[in-house]
Amino acid sequence: MPQIFINEQNCTRCGICVSLCPYRIVVLPDGGLPCHVQGASERCIACGHCEAACPSGAIVVNDARLVPMPYASGVAEIEPARLGAYLRMRRSIRRYREEPVERTTIEQLMDIVRFAPTGRNRQDVHWFIIQDTRELRRLTEMAIDWMRESSAAGSSLAARFNVQGMVRAWEEGRDPLCQHAPHLVIACAREDNPVAGTNAVIALAHLDIIAPAFGLGACWGGIFIFAVQGCEPLRAALGLPPEHVPIHCMMLGYPAIHYQRAPKRNPSDIVWR
Ligand SMILES: Cc1cc2nc3c(=O)[nH]c(=O)nc-3n(C[C@H](O)[C@H](O)[C@H](O)COP(=O)(O)O)c2cc1C
Predict the structure, then answer these.
(1) What is the pTM of this model?
(2) Domain boundaries for CATH 3.30.70.20 within the chain
(3) Which of 101, 116, 146, 201 could form a disulfide bond with 206, CB atoms 3.0-4.6 angstroms apart?
(4) Are 167 and 148 spatial neighbours (Cβ–Cβ below 8 Å)?
């Protein structure tokens, strides 16, 4: 159960920790120090906002699952124009170099992705990373076989996707599912948590955004995940634990193409009230 510890000398009793607690369980008793409401520690989600915002660094949140923060503190600011340009130039990468990505680089990405928001700070995304490119091709082939069989059996799949075209592309040496990406990152969620799927998608969106900063490219694998969800042998070959639901996935690798400009987009569809 999370607990908060206060450094009495440093605490100025400013009350910022009290104002930021999402569950209102941090209080500042008259003449006392900030503390959890009696018996409420189990409701603490260890979001760490009280510790992160304390101007005098007087609070520490501790919980068995939390790992020490190895990064320098301080505010990271990026000019809006720079960040906007970066986000506009992010692309779904569909051509990759054959070169694999070092595991340490993928670990660096995932180390940033773990700071993505999760409902009730559950941090409950389970990752499954196919680093071995040959294994990814084997699994993709299983997905293609499933598509071929589903199409032959007249399933609704063929109407939804151009299945025959994709199967043909694979037979001609192209990879319409994973675009010859060397790696695939699959985000899974526990089925007993209704917001876990949302958490998984948000985390993957972080991965999509951070990848170019490492010179990498990513692309959502909508068709691949569709196959994982529908093809039991493929799911079994992945070896996912039964309680882990595959939510979505992302191809990862070094891009073979450098985009010169951002593509056109529709205007935002907004209702103002
Ligand atoms: C949920 C989702 C699933 C997607 N699935 C695929 C896919 O299976 N294959 C693919 O090449 N692109 C896939 N994409 C990428 C979209 O086609 C892409 O985001 C869109 O064309 C806009 O291009 P951009 O991301 O470069 O701006 C997917 C994107 C999302 C958000």
Answers:
(1) 0.93
(2) 3-62
(3) 116
(4) yes
CATH number of 83-253: 3.40.109.10
Helix (H, G, I), strand (E, B) or coil at 148: helix
CA 93 to ligand 1: nearest atom? 26
Tell me the pairing of strands 244-253 and 217-220: antiparallel
Mean pLDDT of the chain: 94
Pinpoint the residues of the chain covered by CATH 3.40.109.10.
83-253
Quickly state the pLDDT bin for 118 (edges 50, 70, 90). Answer: very high
Long-range contacts of 191-194 (CB under 8 A, 24+ apart): 191/243, 191/245, 192/243, 193/119, 193/122, 193/124
265 has a pLDDT exceeding 80 = yes
Q: Which of 87, 162, 219 to mutate to test the pocket of ligand 1 (most atoms within 8 A of CB)?
A: 219
The predicted pLDDT at position 69 comes to 83
Q: 91 in ligand 1 pocket by Cβ < 6 Å?
A: yes
Over residues 225-234, the mean pLDDT reads: 94
3-class DSSP assignment, residue 161: coil
Confidence of residue 89 (pLDDT cuts 50, 70, 90): very high
Long-range (24+ apart) CB contacts under 8 A made by 67-73 are: none
Residue 184 has a pLDDT of: 98
Q: How many angstroms is it from 173 CA to the middle of ligand 1?
A: 21
At the topology level of CATH, where does 3-62 sit? Answer: Alpha-Beta Plaits (3.30.70)
